[in-house]
Specification:
The protein is of the alpha/beta class and about 280 residues long. It has 11 helices and 12 strands. It has a 6-stranded parallel sheet. α9 links the parallel β9 and β10. It is elongated and about 70 Å long.
């Protein structure tokens, strides 16, 4: 799971945002010392992710909180599965409910969608990856959720790898000039990826010695030609406008990587409910 200190900061920020100084419902209607039991139940089928984060919400609010977890990150859920059962101060359970559910629903949604994409390309050479199109402050948990769903992470931030996009190339004058300038300054651990828009740019990127070549918004026949042209001399990444309907066809072109921004920036939350028992 993501580092505890990162999660604690994220959770505390979310709780402060949600509670402010008082819960005008729970604090006024529930006795201060009342204890209770509750559970999380899946309302759909998918892949669980974020159970530790959700339970951490309650622990930060209530030192007496106790839980029994029946399913863990990466486990497949069916509608009606009881994910976990827990007990604690009733006010704290109610105060933490929304924050805990926001985290586990969002992370499980990403894991579920990623697993679906991984299943679609099963049997091909293509790996499913995320992008940097993440929600501010949530990148670590979103990228973690992608790996739980069976996908892989693209670069985490701008320091992880050098990617020459169209604007970089246009500013430098050419792919060859941009790659040459980068190569002369980069450390030996950093790879260079070049975004290309057509087969001519693919040829230029290959000749320049790019480690990875992105095929940006290309149709499948063009990507297949790019795969033949490169012949395994660089990794090929397909990106841009890829949907469930086109994903298998893209994978069958022979590309090595398919990056999908929608895994993190617009994924549907997985339906989980908290019930008082």
């Amino acid at each position: 799971m993501v580092l505890d200190f990162y999660m604690d900061d994220l959770i505390k920020s979310a709780i402060k945002e949600d509670i402010n100084y008082i819960d005008t419902t729970a604090d006024l209607v529930i006795p201060q010392d009342q204890r209770g039991n509750a559970y999380f139940v899946a309302k759909a089928s998918g892949v669980l992710c974020g159970i530790d984060a959700a339970m951490r919400v309650f622990r930060l609010l209530d030192e007496s909180f106790e839980c029994t977890v029946h399913f863990h990150d990466g486990d497949k859920l069916s509608k009606g599965d009881v994910i976990c059962e827990f007990s604690g101060n009733m006010r704290c359970l109610l105060k933490g409910e929304r924050t805990a559910l926001n985290l586990i629903q969002h992370m499980s949604g990403i894991a579920t969608e990623t697993a679906r994409c991984v299943e679609i390309v099963k049997g091909t050479n293509a790996a499913i990856t995320d992008t940097r199109k993440t929600l501010p402050g949530l990148r670590a948990i979103q990228k973690y959720a992608v790996t739980v769903g069976g996908g892989k992470n693209h670069r985490y931030n701008l320091s992880d790898g050098a990617m020459l996009k169209d604007n970089h190339i246009d500013a430098c004058g050419s792919i060859a000039d941009a790659v040459s300038s980068l190569r002369s300054k980069l450390g030996h651990m950093v790879k260079i990826e070049v975004e290309t828009r057509d087969l001519d740019e693919v040829k230029q990127a290959l000749a320049s010695g790019a480690d990875i070549i992105m095929l940006d918004n290309m149709d499948c026949p063009t990507m297949k030609k790019a795969v033949e042209l490169v012949g395994g001399k660089a990794l090929l990444e397909a990106s841009g406008g890829i949907t469930h309907d086109t994903l298998r066809e893209v994978a069958e072109t022979g590309v090595d990587i398919i990056s999908i921004g929608a895994l993190t920036h617009s994924v549907q939350a997985f339906d989980i409910s908290m019930k008082i028992s």
